[in-house]
Amino acid sequence: MKIHKITALTVLGLGSPFFLCGCFATQDDVKVLKTQVAALNKTLENLQKNQAGLDVQMEDLMSQLVQSSENLKDFDYKLDNISTKLDNITSALDKDGSDYKMPPGEIYSQAKSQLDSAQYASAAKGFALYIQNAPNGQNIEEAYLYLAQALFNLEDYQKAAVSSATLLDKFPKSKHTAAARIVYARSIIPLGKKDEAKNYLQSVVQDYKGSTEAAEAKKLIGEIK
Predict the structure, then answer these.
(1) How far apart are CA 59 and CA 183, in angstroms?
(2) pTM, to two decimals
């Protein structure tokens, strides 16, 4: 059979135009096919690279989702703790004969906030309560001073004078001495003690030269008639 095929090819002739045309067309097709395959391979490489990039992004996204989930669990845990504490406080308040006692530090902070907001009555009660509950507290000097200021603004001059005088008596080296002298002087002026008030104000001018309290005292001296 092989001999017959070779003979057939010989009979047809390698130089036959039909054979040459068929051969050339096949080579062109192969070239085109190779070009298409190369382009396809390039496209596949790009797709693989893009897929690798997507895989990395997907891993990052999953990692962020896991972290977000952990953060959410932690937030839920903290929220549960806060809710439990609020329930405990509510339960304590609801019990017969049990009163919730605010810590002295919170009493002082709340009273100071009320003083800054010109809620003088509430502030005065708060500072008086702090003094009662924390006579040796870290803010005791400020409590006496601010109580005096609140009472002065309420026009309760007698009590304002007592509060500022108590600060001066108990804490002679207080950093609030100048301010306490001014509050005391201002409080006793309406009580008819102008000369004594001038003496206290003058002591501020002499002992605290260059301070804002000295400037305020000097101004008040000029206003006393």
Answers:
(1) 68
(2) 0.57
